[in-house]
Here is the input.
Amino acid sequence: MKTGTSALALATIALATTVACSSDDATKKDVTLTIVAYESFTPPEGIFDAFTNETGISVRIVAAGDAGEMIAKATLTAGNPEGDVMWGVDNTLLSRALDADVFDPYVSGVDGLDPDLVATAADVVTPVDYGDVCVNYDVERLEQLGIDPPTSFDDLASPEYRGLLVTPSALTSSTGLAFLLGTIADDPDGWQQTWRDLRDNDVLVVGGWYEAYYTEFSRYGGERPLVVSYASSPPAEILFADPPLPDGSPAPTAVVASTCFRQIEYAGVLRGSKHVEEARALIDYLVSPIFQESMPESLFVFPANERATLSDTFTTYVQPVTDPLVMEPATIAASRDAWLEEWDAIVG
Amino acid sequence: MPSSADPATAGRVRLFAVPGLVMVLALVIVPVFALASRTIDSASLFGVWSRPGIVDAIRFTVAETILSTLVTVVLGLAPAWALSHHSMPGHRFALAVTTVPFMLPTVVVGAAFLGLLPGSVERGLVAVVVAHAYFNVAVVIRTVAPVWATIDPMLVAAARNLGASRSRAFVSVTLPLLKPALLSAVAIVGFMCATSYGVVRMLGGGDATLEVEVYRRAVLFGDIAGASTLAVAQLVVAAICLFVWVGKDRVVFTESGHRSRRRDHPAARVVAVIATLITAVPIVALVLSSIRSRGHWTLAGWRLLTSDSDVPGLRVDLPDVLFRSLSFAAIAAAIAVPIGIATSTFAAAARRTILDRVLLLPLGASAVAVGLGIVITYDSAPFDFRSSWWLPPVVHAVVALPFVIRVIQPVQSRIPEHLRSAAATLGASPLRVWATVDVPLISGAIRTAVGLSLAISLGEFGATSFLTRNDSDTLPITVEQLLGRSGDLARLAGHGVAVVLLLVTLVALAFTTRSRRSWSAS
Here is the structure.
């Protein structure tokens, strides 16, 4: 009915563009691969030049919203994807992509890939990086209050830390979801009680990470010295400090290591890509040391390839989280929705 | 055109309705129903309603929509009156400033707004209503003030001479004349509040609108079937509201052509200044947060934006982003304004308001469902438009279209019919009547419409962020990206880009805003 007509009208509008592009493509033999990535994927300029020089394959990046939005669209377009390679599906979302058969299975065999990370990838995708979501604290403010930094979830629920914590909602923020998963990984049977205690201890739940960090966190003028953020936030507080901090001064914020939940990101070949071989080569490149070494400073994540060397600026400030809370994508898949509804009933 | 117009003319005028209809069908209605037909099954059709939170969301949506709309329209009347009854220097500036909150992405002004709310205001219904009023008052000003300026002051004076009190003169003379514009404002504000996402997510506390639930189901729960069910229900309810509304909204045709020049009302100046100041406070807070850090003044954020210095992780190509945003805005305005004029011309000629009601539907649709729907509707050659560079500005045009129509149509519908008849009697063709009678009289409204489309496109975030974009970061998306990272520099630079967005929006609005004098002239 109307679909045809309206699509036709739109097609006419687009015709000029389409024609121009296709004739352009026809004259070149080289392949252009499209990476579908989340919004904040900003690798350094020219990072794909080495890949293009070696293989003749060009690379373009399209942004598909945040990771959750990207997966929602990928599940709808499974088999007829918006690109050839997807960057950035993480362990909290991977199962959804697997259920919808989004990927053409490929695990890169590049040397140096952390086998523990590869083991989480269900033989379908390749781990590319990892980072942690942790409770951060404002060092100076806690000193002023005469309170020691908390060391556990139980501390956060104790009277000493009453009214000090702010977190993004697990229902509207992936950071908030990761924190919730951390409490579950920490105490699979008693996490509901943890959250009841947190609620009774006046935890503030806000919509997104931005409100939590930039309006409620005491380092940015808010009232609360404890905030759910990233393990990479403290180094950013030094590197991006303005006015700059004196050399050698300690970070103004730090993480509560026992609350850190590991987020692993993966890249995969999208099923339906017309360039599967080339896409696999690109995945290999994404986990090669040359690309992996560029990531820590531009994306503030750790490389999945253990052979990638980290720059001094990064290693000076970043204390790696040695024993993070982890959860298998399959476990998350099995219960995520039920957990969210339970959590909503406790906190909402 | 009079109803006695010959059938051929009527047929031609009907063509004027086509482009607007096609756009809304192609980019809103078809995608939402395509998404629904692809995903909905009987389980989600009935099952989603028993999900926890859905009933609460419906209740909250209805409550906040009614309250927000009432508060916004009532609060908006004072500045609308003031800005249509004075012409002091800075008039255009005042109009532009009071419009800005509506144009800027929620996260930007919302955060500044959040910081200014008294601590006693809890997140929840009250905070949401106050924020909606702040963001949407511009709609009332923009739709009501142009009509208010054309009301002959002699009418009110006559009523007063006949013994009517000030309030009675307002209720029995002014209000009926304002009614079409007011109803327009109610419709737009109502839709904006009913489908509110950013404000509710930020200030709603535990409460959510249906729109937020659609997002949660699709993105967080991965329940796209449930999300589509909700989105279709939302669209159907919106359509029903529009249908009912048509009966209520009788366009008032006034024959008052000539007006004497009025004196500026002294109180108008005061109200205009107060309204501007109140609106400006969060905006000033925003500007400050791009140059204040830890109790110091700093230009570090601006240096990052204006130099080539490449701070890892904070790479911004501001000229590139600015150029893209401006190009998108120009394209969106170039599409929305002509289509809006055509639609208004049709509505004025046919004296039917059903069409422009239909064109309001995009405001009642879920941005999430539209975004997902476009992805699956235009997904195969030769209609594979996903990640086409032109898709964002075209979607901006669809978002801007209802506003363009709302601005142009009330003014156009007030053009005295005898002017057109006179021109026709003197032998002018319908097109010539339109070009020589309608266009000059609505030129001021057209300028306003251009300004609004530019500003809406510049600030559009919701729909754009859901489209897959090929190397096409706009100003608001760059703001989100920077403000998604930790650290002083990220925060300063993010707010810096927001200030750039603020400035170009102000310029677009100020350059295209009519002074009161030209309002009166129409």
The longest helix of chain A spans residues 2-27. Chain A has a mean pLDDT of 88.
